[in-house]
Amino acid sequence: MRNLFAFLAGGLFGAGLFISGMTDTAKVQGWLDIFGAWDPTLAFVMGGAIIPMAIAWQLARRRSTPVLGGTFPPPAPMRLDTRLAVGSVMFGMGWGLAGLCPGPSVASLSYGGVEHWVFFAAMIGGMLAAPPVLARLTRPAQAA
Amino acid sequence: MEQDWIWGLIGGLLIGSGGAVYLLANGRIMGASGILGGLVDGSGKSNWVERVAFLAGVFLLPVALLPLYGAVDTHITSNWWVLVAAGLLVGLGTRIANGCTSGHGVCGISRLSLRGLAATGFYIFAGGATVLLFRHVWGII
């Protein structure tokens, strides 16, 4: 049952990305391009997505457990750290370069052509590299 | 073209509904980089079927919708150097920051998470600066 609902959630996510045009790299780069031909679409997508999600967080507060059991995620930590900043800046650079982020990358694999698979493969490579990179970065801090 | 924002809004509502289902039914935050990254580095081994099921939905629904649209041009660059550099940065960056546009953006902002808001500020600023430099200054993308 959990897997069925995960598939349903992923399907809504994938359909939304497709319909909204967020797998079109020109629309994403167009939104980031405030000094060029600015495309406002992404703001509507983000705004539209936040509405049902904000309602869902409110509903979650009234329940003790999720419908299919288990536990809700813990409250978001209030702590900002270098890791969050550095990682987000790296992600933003890649996002701007290609106009793709992880969700749309998966959603566009079936029709985007070989370039989308190249990006996807490189993204997997980056994800594989993350644990050793993080281990190296945090080791001196722990020793100090 | 002038209807793009309407489709953006409808698509956004679907994206948020997906996140709502994943939270209320499965008790999980819908973050694409976390769901995929947990499979890639093995940290999500305990619920790997749920992750694969989610990603299968993301992959397959556009396949089902594609016939309604005919061909879709994603306007992606054909420069493989840019694609590889961008992919590496997105993969590494989202794992270091523990989230991307869906996890930090959609799911974080909607619960007024300070980390989600900060991460979104950082990646939008970095993305904007990157497009400015690589498009208008250096003319690469």
TrEMBL record, chain A:
Q: Which UniProt keywords apply?
A: Membrane, Transmembrane, Transmembrane helix
Pfam family of the protein (one): DUF6691
Q: Where are the transmembrane segments?
A: 41-60, 80-97, 117-135
Q: Say which domain of life the source belongs to.
A: Bacteria
Q: What is this protein called?
A: YeeE/YedE family protein
Q: Recite the lineage of the species.
A: Bacteria, Pseudomonadati, Pseudomonadota, Alphaproteobacteria, Rhodobacterales
TrEMBL record, chain B:
* Residue ranges of the TM segments: 6-25, 52-72, 78-97, 117-138
Classify the protein's membrane topology as the record does. Answer: Multi-pass membrane protein
Q: Which residues form a coiled coil?
A: none
- Note one Pfam family from the annotation: Sulf_transp
**Domain of life from the UniProt record:** Bacteria
Gene Ontology cellular-component terms listed: plasma membrane
Tell me where it resides: Cell inner membrane
Which keywords accompany this UniProt record? Cell inner membrane, Cell membrane, Membrane, Transmembrane, Transmembrane helix, Transport
Q: Which PANTHER family match?
A: INNER MEMBRANE PROTEIN YEDE (PTHR30574), SULPHUR TRANSPORT DOMAIN-CONTAINING PROTEIN (PTHR30574:SF1)
The Swiss-Prot or TrEMBL record describes its family as follows:
Belongs to the TsuA/YedE (TC 9.B.102) family.
Kindly provide the name given to this protein in its UniProt entry.
YeeE/YedE family protein
Give the organism the record lists. Answer: Rhodosalinus halophilus
